[in-house]
Amino acid sequence: MDFLRPGDWREALALRAERPGALPIAGGTDVMVEINHGGRRPEALLDLSGITELHAVEREPADGGTPGAPAGRVRLGAAVPYTRVVAELGAELPGLALAARTVGSPQIRNRGSVGGNLGAASPAGDCHPALLASGAEVEAVSVRGTRHIPVDDFYLGVKRNALAPDELIRSVRVPRATGPQQFSKVGPRNAMVIAVCAVAVALHPGRGGVRVGIGSAAPTPVRAREAEEHIAGVLADGDLWERRDPIPPAAARRFAELVAAACSPIDDVRGTAAYRRHAVAVMARRTLGWCWEAHRAGASGPRPEGGAPCA
Ligand SMILES: Cc1cc2nc3c(=O)[nH]c(=O)nc-3n(C[C@H](O)[C@H](O)[C@H](O)COP(=O)(O)OP(=O)(O)OC[C@H]3O[C@@H](n4cnc5c(N)ncnc54)[C@H](O)[C@@H]3O)c2cc1C
């Protein structure tokens, strides 16, 4: 097996175009498991770990200060490890930082990256619900040019994404939080688990929006659009964004039902479809509740205990 080690981004793109059979490797926490235990034998590995651009965290400015306009974005290099997402981005990207906290063990979080999670496109990847809830965009680059793919369009099937064979992920652009965000995950135990199911909720008070991402409960990570519309309508009709009154319990229950209805889970060794639907509904109600309490209190960050996985 060849080991290709480009010295810079331009060379990485050229090698990607010349050697479509070379498998990109960043932290290697998925790739090496596949090679060691899954019997995968790519003709070559394309090592991206030394490419400076992929380790950069950059800030893009806000959009002119218009009310309701995006508060700017964080351009997160594809190979930035989870440890840095947790340490550096908790205030700007609280949902993603909470999800990153739950990934694997410290060793996995030191190596594993958001770009690798997107590249693997497992329905159980923990970044996906938070990226869906935030409205992120994947920057896919090849020698032919750059595409910006909304994360909603990125997941095509089980472990299939929208990258062309000659493309690499340069970054994921994530809007800075303008309101509270939460993430919750069910797994058998911390440190070594993939999610049985997961839910992320983000409030976008400036435009009266709520976005929900669900993981590990359908062939791809999915949004819960009907639930989003339902709860946004309830918040608008009752002028609740301004009044900051509690969400009526019946409306929160309906929200949870609609989030569960957006899933199409399967029975597998990690859980039954019925259990997943139930757990997703519970997590949806809880994450919405935590977000709403933070909004009522005027806070945008994670709850103090940090959105730990709920079992
Ligand atoms: C013990 C253990 C526990 C784990 N726990 C979790 C968990 O709790 N939650 C979770 O979500 N995941 C978990 N994982 C899976 C893994 O850590 C994550 O998916 C991680 O995000 C992968 O990142 P990486 O940089 O290591 O990717 P790699 O293994 O290097 O690559 C993963 C895939 O992405 C592709 N790729 C990488 N970078 C790019 C790029 N820039 N452009 C295009 N394609 C690219 C690779 O070709 C490969 O297909 C776990 C893995 C292990 C071994």
TrEMBL record:
<dbReference type="InterPro" id="IPR016169">
    <property type="entry name" value="FAD-bd_PCMH_sub2"/>
</dbReference>
<dbReference type="InterPro" id="IPR002346">
    <property type="entry name" value="Mopterin_DH_FAD-bd"/>
</dbReference>
<dbReference type="GO" id="GO:0016491">
    <property type="term" value="F:oxidoreductase activity"/>
</dbReference>
<dbReference type="InterPro" id="IPR016167">
    <property type="entry name" value="FAD-bd_PCMH_sub1"/>
</dbReference>
<keyword id="KW-0274">FAD</keyword>
<keyword id="KW-0285">Flavoprotein</keyword>
<dbReference type="Pfam" id="PF00941">
    <property type="entry name" value="FAD_binding_5"/>
</dbReference>
<dbReference type="InterPro" id="IPR036318">
    <property type="entry name" value="FAD-bd_PCMH-like_sf"/>
</dbReference>
<dbReference type="GO" id="GO:0071949">
    <property type="term" value="F:FAD binding"/>
</dbReference>
<keyword id="KW-0560">Oxidoreductase</keyword>
<dbReference type="Pfam" id="PF03450">
    <property type="entry name" value="CO_deh_flav_C"/>
</dbReference>
<protein>
    <submittedName>
        <fullName>Xanthine dehydrogenase family protein subunit M</fullName>
    </submittedName>
</protein>
<dbReference type="InterPro" id="IPR016166">
    <property type="entry name" value="FAD-bd_PCMH"/>
</dbReference>
<feature type="domain" description="FAD-binding PCMH-type">
    <location>
        <begin position="1"/>
        <end position="179"/>
    </location>
</feature>
<dbReference type="InterPro" id="IPR051312">
    <property type="entry name" value="Diverse_Substr_Oxidored"/>
</dbReference>
<dbReference type="InterPro" id="IPR036683">
    <property type="entry name" value="CO_DH_flav_C_dom_sf"/>
</dbReference>
<dbReference type="InterPro" id="IPR005107">
    <property type="entry name" value="CO_DH_flav_C"/>
</dbReference>
